[in-house]
Design brief:
alpha+beta, Butyryl-Coa Dehydrogenase, subunit A, domain 1, Butyryl-CoA Dehydrogenase, subunit A, domain 2, Butyryl-CoA Dehydrogenase, subunit A, domain 3, four-stranded antiparallel sheet, 11 helices, 51% helix, binds coenzyme a persulfide
């Protein structure tokens, strides 16, 4: 917990410097090689970025949600692939352990997650269970043998971010196959190197080069019973939903950071580019695009800060998190689209970088719940509260 504003400002300043001096200059290399340089990952470790949200007692920085989103506003003014390095650990991979893990599970994993020595991936989505997450089919069947109680896991997971780098998976699997809904799902911590786990080939994506996703296949994987998160069966879906509530605010903050960068690039271009004898920034139709982007960006920043503060106060932010994810991800798409328009032909060329952002940000409206899923969450909560 950073209670001293000056210490927190020093962290923010160092993240801003790191983003400008190390990440931005490496953007093209990452896009071309589809890999984040090891030296950059190590610097992220050294800065404590893997432990942003992990309690100090376990070696993390224990940032509040408000502090976390302010760090993301700075860190994400570059290719979103850099954030993905810490994304599953800080965003969703470690949060199930943090929220619902037993003290033993927390003591075992959180210190290594905080240093970045261990990376966590969140394994919920399946080939036939995407938006309808509760329909997942991966099973974890309890048994006992000479080595003790365990679960045997079978099934496959899809689009698992950071799976190739993961040391552990937060896995959602069905412990009660008779219960086809959310109540039959449990959450586990699974060692990624367990016998029977194999990875599919790295997915070829439209954008976000350097951030890797792939299938993860579980073939009779033996998971010791003490790896059941919280030690109780049937709570895995709720753990996943709570993790996603937090993850959606985190991701909305990512959208704000990336949109800030895209808008700054578009503004600079508009000031430098001369047409009809003056900078195109002087033309009102260009100004309208700049102003609309600035307004929507400001609205997103305010929403994200407000939702983060509410979460810090211990309030249920399921609705607010979905509102933030919905609005900020759509905002980022519009900001990127207007930026291409402001740059004109240059916006379509790879060398200006805007077309790369245009492709990168398309994912924001899809992962951790599509825009349509956010609308469902918001409206369902509204109806439920109105009826209560
Ligand atoms: N926090 C805690 N518990 C929650 C919750 C939340 N935010 N949301 C739902 N739950 C609980 C419900 O209260 C319910 O519990 P009870 O059975 O005890 O009442 C249980 O979880 C099931 O909830 P619900 O009936 O709403 O589940 P649905 O199957 O209808 O699905 C949605 C809900 C659509 C919201 C869910 O499937 C979802 O978020 N899908 C998108 C998944 C996603 O984001 N995937 C991206 C993967 S990570 S890249």
């Amino acid at each position: 917990m950073i209670r001293d504003p000056q210490t927190f400002q020093a962290l923010l300043d160092s993240v801003t410097r790191f983003t400008r001096e190390r990440l931005v200059p490496a953007e093209n290399e990452v896009a071309e090689t589809d890999a984040i340089p090891h030296a950059i990952v190590q610097e992220m470790r050294d800065m404590g970025l893997f432990g942003l949200t992990i309690p100090e007692a376990y070696g993390g920085l224990e940032l509040t949600m408000e502090e976390e989103v302010r760090v993301l506003f700075e860190l994400c003014q570059t290719s979103p692939a850099f954030r993905s390095v810490i994304g599953t650990t800080v965003g969703i991979g470690s949060q199930g352990i943090l929220m619902d893990g037993t003290p033993e599970q927390q003591a075992e994993y959180l210190p290594r997650l905080a240093t970045g020595e261990l990376m966590a991936s969140f394994a919920l989505t399946e080939p036939d269970a995407g938006s309808d997450a509760a329909s997942l089919r991966t099973t974890a069947i309890k048994g006992v043998d000479s080595e003790g109680e365990h679960y045997i896991v079978n099934g496959s997971k899809r689009y698992i971010t950071n799976a190739p780098q993961a040391g552990i998976f937060t896995l959602m699997a069905r412990t009660n196959p008779a219960d086809k809904g959310a109540g039959g799902v449990s959450a586990f911590i699974v060692d990624a190197h367990s016998p029977g786990i194999s990875l599919g080939r790295i997915d070829r994506k439209m954008g976000q080069k350097g951030a890797h996703t792939c299938d993860v296949i579980f073939d009779n994987v033996r998971v010791p019973a003490h790896q059941l998160i919280g030690g109780v069966e049937g709570r895995g879906f709720k753990t996943a939903m709570k993790v996603l509530d937090k993850g959606r605010i985190h991701l909305a903050a990512v959208c704000v950071g990336v949109a800030r960068r895209i808008l700054a690039d578009a503004l600079r271009y508009a000031i430098e580019r001369q047409q009809f004898g003056q900078p195109i920034a002087e033309f009102q139709l260009v100004q309208a695009m700049l102003a609309d982007s600035q307004t929507e960006l400001y609205a997103s920043e305010c929403m994200v800060i407000d939702a983060a503060r509410r979460r810090d106060e211990g309030r249920n932010v399921s609705t607010e998190a979905a509102c933030c994810k919905l609005f900020a991800s759509e905002m980022c798409g519009r900001v990127a689209d207007r930026a291409v328009q402001i740059l004109g032909g240059a916006g379509y060329l790879a060398e200006y970088g805007i077309e790369r952002f245009y492709r990168d940000v398309r994912l924001f409206r899809l992962y951790e719940g599509t825009s349509q899923i956010q609308q469902i969450v918001i409206a369902r909560n509204m109806v439920r509260e109105a009826r209560a």
